[in-house]
Amino acid sequence: MATADDLRCSGCGVPIQTESPDRLGYAPAAALKKEPALCQRCFRIKHYNEISSVTPNQDDFLKILSGIGRTESLVVHIVDLFDFEGSLINGLHRFVGHNPVVLVVNKIDLLPKAINVNRILNWVQKQVKEHGLKTAEIVLCSAKKNIGFDRVVEAIAGHRGTKDVYVVGATNVGKSTLINRLIGDYSDLEAELTTSPYPGTTLDLVQIPLDDGRHIIDTPGIVYAHRLTELADKRDLQKLLPDKPIKPAVFQLNEKQTLFFGGYARFDFTQGARQSFTCYMSNALPIHRTKLERAEELYAEHKGEMLSPPAKEGLDAIPPLTKHAFRIPKGSSSEVLISGLGWIAINSDAGAQIVVHAPKGVKVAVRDSLI
Q: Is the full-model pTM beyond 0.70?
């Protein structure tokens, strides 16, 4: 029988220990008899979808990533199309050095089915250029729905040669789901990484041996505090994170009207001709319309109740809302994004002035329309 000193969790990669249930990698001694070995945290996520609050800190993530530039590898950077700007690793070149990067844009299944794939690819290429990220190739896919996955495998095969493959990305972009699919294509190893709707599932390097003696290396998800999904109560994540194609919600607003997105954010149409605003967010997130003059009172009286999520018990973790004012020019086709929540499309012939209220620190920005 293996001892804890010999084992790493096959789900999250951390060394298994049997001493302290409050530390990463804990497993009861009896669990060491089972194969593959799982820490208690991964066992509970896998079998009971149970939430665990034990996660590594940001410094640990950065230490792990900083070693990639000293290797000769292919880097696969996975981003979430639903939160593209929020999940993109800015300054990735500082970690990967001269290693080539394949950008895998995951979760395209969340967009409405009528969307033109070439338009999405052109939009991503433009965003990547604006963010200064150099890529060997960009691939669109849905790891969950197995859409475009053959193209991901071809891209990796075409760029890696005989190199190791490091897979990097922010939390909740679908890294483990994609790697589980890669295991079946590249290796006879029976393994499955822990996947769950909660951030920080992979906690250390997980090395999956390939048939040619090299490895696919899953790295921990980087925790970005500017994403609303990192601030939200874990019990509310399934309402924030869409799991099926988004049904856009269209609102015809007069100026001085407001939309509340649960209790997480608020959108004020402060000035402009009557026009439509299209909201691309999880279908499970309630949207409430009111007059701007009533917005402050409504939020004060009903946050955590009618305006939820978050429920009252999750409000303490959410920083106070702060204002972000934007002027949308006439004739523009723009979107205002709230990282981790979604975006609002503003196709304005007349122009508009808007104010977005989001928790302090959450990324809010205007971008060219994806759709």
A: yes
